[in-house]
Amino acid sequence: MNRIWKNFDKYRFLLEELVKKDIKLKYRSSYLGMLWTLLEPLLTTLVLWYVFSGWYGRGDQNFPVYILTGRLMYSFFANSTKAAMKSIRSNSAMIKKVYVPKYIYPLSSILSNFVTFLISMIILVAAMIVFKVSITFYLLQIVVPLFLILVLSLGIGMILATLAVFFRDLEYLWSVMLMMIMYASAIFYDITDKKFIDKAPILKIVNPLFDVITNFRDAVFGRPLGREELLISIIYSFGTLFIGIFMFYRKQDEFILNI
Amino acid sequence: MEEKVLVVDNVSMRFNLMEKKVDNLKEYFIKMIKNELRYQEFWALQGISFSLNKGDRLGILGLNGAGKSTLLKIIAGVLKATEGKVTTKGKLVPLLELGAGFDPQYTGAENIFLYGAVLGYSKDFIREKYDEIVEFSELGDFINVPVKNYSSGMKARLGFSIATVVQPDILILDEVLSVGDAKFKKKSEKKIKAMFDSGVTVLFVSHSLEQVNRLCNRAILLEKGKLIAKGSVKKVSIIYEAKINDNGND
To answer: Which of A66-75, A153-162, A227-236, B145-154 has the highest mean pLDDT?
Structure first.
């Protein structure tokens, strides 16, 4: 264990550099650059709000913030898992020539997405002010779902990263699954509404993103974190993390033979 | 009592060559069910054993396909040996390809930090040595240009400058001294020689027997994955030359 930590310490600077590079290069050749991190959630939220507000009436002040919270969390999950999945292949040149602890690759792509995710929260703060969502002490709870979604993305990211080395069609499969997850995460519809309420118990157990988004919304809208959702979230997050780490370590010596 | 900085202990490397590469789920399952997952075994290295003392300069000789690069990759930690063990002491810098850590969109300056980090140097160390690196590479203002616009010679110069800015304990060179123009070749050889004189242990692969004789004190000869000669560079190069001429006389 000590040896693993020492190795990590030695490459901590590399992790920093890789995260910095991902962020710097993400929008380097575009005009608006970093601004897109804020524009993208804003624009999609506006569209979703416009299209779906009919279901709840224009009067529901909370709806845009409701959508935004779901949208932000989902985007982070989708982008970071996709990036982690491709991380081994996209760094194949480096892997073949220099020794670097391989978990650094999925880890750095997830962390760089996490940083841009945190930056995009500026939009959330702005929206909360505009739509007069009161900021309570419950907001401090937000660190819990933020931490849990990070762990969840890391766990699933490691699983995908390992499998994608050996099966290239996983990238297509995951895109489809992400779409299913999006529809099943109550981003733009209210799960307590009678149209959807009977689906709630199943979604809660089967879709980990549903639970962590619910907790996130609890913090934002000033409620204590839902305990059932919290428990399911913890189980999924750390469960996938352990499975991901285990799979990755078992197979990492074979990566170079397949890329 | 001489200190052993590298011990290669009975290292073997097996590759599984599939007859037809299967990299999608459907084919994999079908073949698995039909029991057709057949692998063809290829032993790139068999039972390689040797050790190096501090300050040794080892030339690794062999024809193409003998297993030289595979052996270097195993020693550098890039590949894991199927059998056997490699033990190294001290900081190991592999120069298997100059600029392997470069990102083409990054400028030369940004890549100095990135590549330095890849090689395991610390942030403070690179900051200290930054000017020295830029100077040695002779890139001048080009250092702020994205590396994708560099010529291959420029990339090689930058990679070399970063990699050699510190004294590694063990340096692995896989035919990297043959890049760059004549002027840079001379400069890089001089730098390598200076490293030798300060006791850096070197593993050196080159097809130029002349270069190996000039720079190394010991050598090993590989043929089809087996170690067929080891000893002083003089002794081994004689055997190597004999082999080449032997094949030529067929």
So the answer is: A153-162
- Chain A, window 156-185: residues with a beta carbon less than 8 angstroms from a chain B beta carbon: 166-170, 173
A12 interface with B at CB cutoff 8 Å: no
How big is the CA angle at A93 (ends B208 and B136), to the nearest 5 degrees? 60
Contact check, Cβ <8 Å, A257/B15: yes
CB contact under 8 A, A11 and B117: yes
CB A141 within 8 A of CB A230: no
User: In order of start, what are the domains of chain B with their CATH numbers?
Assistant: 1-91+216-250 (3.40.50)
Q: CA of B126: which chain A residue's CA is closest?
A: A13
Q: What's the domain count of chain A?
A: 1
Give the three-class secondary structure for B11.
strand
Q: Give chain B's residues under pLDDT 50.
A: 1, 250
> What is the pTM (predicted TM-score) of this model?
0.86
Q: Which residues of B touch A13 (CB under 8 A)?
A: 117, 121-123
Question: Could you read off the pLDDT of A12-44 as tens digits, one per residue?
Answer: 899 999 999 988 888 777 777 778 888 888 888
CA distance A163 to A246: 12
Q: In which domain, by residue range, is A223 found? A: 2-255
